[in-house]
Amino acid sequence: MAQLDTRQKLAILADAAKYDASCASSGTSKRDSRGGKGVGSSEGMGICHAYAPDGRCISLLKILLTNSCIFDCAYCINRKSSNVRRARFTAQEVVQLTLAFYKRNYIEGLFLSSGIIRSSNYTMEQLVEVARSLREDHDFRGYIHLKTIPDADPELVRQAGLHADRVSINVELPTVAGLTDLAPEKSAPQIEGAMSDMKGAIEEGKDNKKRFKSAPSFAPAGQSTQMIVGADAATDRDIVRRASGLYDRFGLRRVYYSAFSPIPDASAVLPLKRPPLMREHRLYQSDWLMRFYGFKPAEVEQAADPAGMLPLDIDPKLAWALKFRDSFPVDVNRAPKELLLRIPGLGTKAVDRIVQSRRWRKLSLDDVARVTVSVAKVRPFIVTTDWRPTLLTDRADLRTLVAPRTEQLELFAA
């Protein structure tokens, strides 16, 4: 096999990492290198797809340590039986790449995952060594996200939490049946056990930090996970239920959804084409309803059709409102915030502005229009000083009136 140089390895391993969606960095602690000490920052202006503690978009070097793997998960392009070009970084190569990219202002942090080589413990040791060297040898103060391995030694996983801002363990698939069929070498109880241990370690770290100022931070940005959508027979209702359980049991910061993408030489048990990307988007919207809008999982599930799938043409909040029209219209001048958050077309910021504004005066339909993108979507569900929907809320064709209109874009339109 020809020896690969660093640029060739980077091309292979950065491309292999693109299937992992869980690389946002929101929630980490603020660090910088002002005062002439340390290298890096978790706050600086960046160019890619992650978020700093103050909400700004920052960039991450997102790579695999290696795309070789001893496992043969049917849905994974890096599985043992896959005919792909393989590459592998050493721990020090990743360290030097991270520092070099940072000093050229390309990145603000590192997202590192890996296939399993030799054994879970050996691979976890290499991942931890990258983070340890960056923190201790080079005083790197940027963001680090490490993917941990469920069956690795708990002490190695603990060390990952001491050096990384966020750690994550992928549940892979929404159902145990799906995991058994497509990744028989992985164990759902083992994955959940590792997530439970991580939750306990994070809580212990927070408690130690409160009691002792000198206590080290432990995964200050928490833990996250990712599940693949569309590779098995799981419905959207199954996925919403699973995500809710993960949030409740393991205190996750985020659950990420990744639409299954067909891979070369795929197994016959996999679907021939990927699910609609809109399905992934609707699942993220349902996730937001549970996390920020006060919807219970059972209520989000009610937005699904009898087959358990969320509609693709309208968002789940609107789908819920159309099913439960007796909850509307809502008086924007008198209703509590909890009810305002259920109005289709009003986001959390719009609701906050409404609550703040109505302290000083009564709001009209024009006032509501100023805080939303489409007042036409909102009108059937609200009451203002100068507007009442009367029979509009009960119209049989209401869905047609409020659903987004699809139109063919013109290539050379002005």
UniProtKB/TrEMBL annotation:
Stated name of the protein: Putative DNA modification/repair radical SAM protein
Elp3/MiaA/NifB-like radical SAM core domain mapped to chain residues: 59-286
Gene Ontology MF terms in the entry: catalytic activity; iron-sulfur cluster binding; metal ion binding
Superkingdom field: Bacteria
Cofactors that this protein relies on: [4Fe-4S] cluster
Keyword terms, alphabetized: Iron, Iron-sulfur, Metal-binding, S-adenosyl-L-methionine
Keyword Metal-binding: yes
